[in-house]
Amino acid sequence: MIAEFTDIWVYLRTGPLLWLTVALAAYVLAQWIYERAGLNPLLNPVAIAVVLLVALLTSTGTDYQTYFEGAQFVHFLLGPATIALAVPLYSHFGKVRAVILPMLVALLAGALTAVGTAVGVAALFGASFETLASLAPKSVTTPIAMGISERIGGLPSLTAVLVILTGILGAMLATPVLNALGIRDWRARGFAAGVRPTASAPRARSTSTRWPAPSPASPWVSTAC
Question: What's the pTM?
Answer without folding.
Answer: 0.65
